[in-house]
Amino acid sequence: MKSTMKDDSISLSKTLLPYTLHLLLLIALLPIVLLYLYFYPLSLTKSQTQLHHATSSSPTHYTVNDKHKIDEHPCDYFNGKWIHDKKGPLYNGTTCGTIKQGQNCITNGRPDSNYLYYRWKPNECKLPRFEPNTFLQLSKNRHISFVGDSLARNQFESLLCMLSTVSKPKPVHHKGSHWWHFPSHNATLSVYWSPFLVQGDERSKSGPNFNTIHLDRVNEKLAKDMDGIDLIVLSFGNWFINVPSVYYENGLVLGCLNCSGFGLNYTDIGFYVPLRKALRTCLNGIIERKVAKRNGIGVIVKTFSPSHFDGDWDKAGTCSKIEPYVKGEKKIGKMESEIRRIEIEEVENAKKKSNAFGGIRFEVLDVTELALLRPDGHPGAYMNPFPFANGVPKYVQNDCVHWCLPGPIDTWNEIFLEMMKKWDWKGQPRSEE
Ligand SMILES: *[C@@H]1O[C@H](CO)[C@@H](O)[C@H](O)[C@H]1NC(C)=O
Ligand SMILES: *[C@@H]1O[C@H](CO)[C@@H](O)[C@H](O)[C@H]1NC(C)=O
Ligand SMILES: *[C@@H]1O[C@H](CO)[C@@H](O)[C@H](O)[C@H]1NC(C)=O
Ligand SMILES: *[C@@H]1O[C@H](CO)[C@@H](O)[C@H](O)[C@H]1NC(C)=O
Fold first, then answer.
1. Closest-lying ligand to the alpha carbon of 94?
2. Which secondary structure element, helix H or strand E, spans residue 278, and what is its range?
3. What are the tens digits of pLDDT across the range 56-90?
4. Is the CB of residue 261 below 6 angstroms from any atom belonging to ligand 4?
């Protein structure tokens, strides 16, 4: 409930919160710092699990619109490598006015620009450059919503910038979320702050100092608006890992994470089980709602986006790489891989559940590998303007979680568009083709 109200404005500080939390947490709980760093080290264990990918699209192909011919062979967009590309991004920090300052690396004085000149090359096919007009055309008379944590917002802002290069959006006042409307296509983009995907209250300084998460309660704010949403992109994970939490089910405490320090005598159940339950509740909530209303939806679950704290979190030089990793140079960590697996499994479960009802389409936007390979794409110290204007300070705040705009996160939307092109929008309301 509280998180619903607090969300009136996803302010600058709001989206930085998970990061700030990390900082606070790191200061407060040194043992966890070590643990945290343990999870994000350079240690490249050879034995790590290989990423396996189901192809993102079903073999059946559709013609959404005559102009969008679909390839005969579905492509696995998620295995590939980053290659140099002279073209560079569609926008920059000056041309796009809606970039959050903490991710506006160029205007914050990041000196290198090499990281802007890469594109993702899937092994089996070519990923086309983002076509804003095509995206808008497919979004005509529709509402597309990004739901979850600050990475949902990060991806949303990337999309907003790319679309703004061809059509000017207008902000729409909507209580509890941010909406942008493209009058040219009557398309709406929105972003909902819901870092747990389910109902919950974030930890706060005024207390309690741990997250309170109701794993079986659908996020009310989202449920209320669900009927009008045609496509939803879910992003979550970071708010579960290593942030002290108490989990509830049926209004009763199910367990907690790292809560002994608060004098709470609950069983520590880690975060994997709660994370799975939260996603399942959210997906079930969408299915139930849409089936009851007999109105369709596309649901995309973005997989975990690894962060790259490769040095002291508060020192200059952390995630200051200026080149992507080459394929095979960096192996996925155990935690990232496990979270990704849970996400993919729950999407498969949801697909089965919704099979009887034809109007819901589930997809995985499996960014884990392609994000893993971009240690150079984070703001790092350039989350703040000109951090080294007066030399190198003793302590430097680093953001190695979010992505510079423009930056590698633009690619997530390129793949998102390819998914949309292949979709059969049957069963989904559309007033005009
Ligand atoms: C941003 O793009 C505009 C238009 O292409 C260009 O004039 C400007 O120099 C660019 N700014 C930066 C910092 O690259
Ligand atoms: C505009 O799009 C919304 C869905 O986002 C739809 O409900 C509405 O009917 C559309 N308006 C027109 C004039 O087609
Ligand atoms: C914590 O709970 C366990 C099991 O419910 C109980 O045996 C133990 O005495 C409790 N410890 C404290 C300090 O309350
Ligand atoms: C915090 O939780 C993590 C994940 O469950 C666990 O590995 C770690 O030991 C816990 N730390 C403390 C101090 O309880």
1. 1
2. helix 272-293
3. 333 333 333 333 444 456 789 999 999 999 999 99
4. no
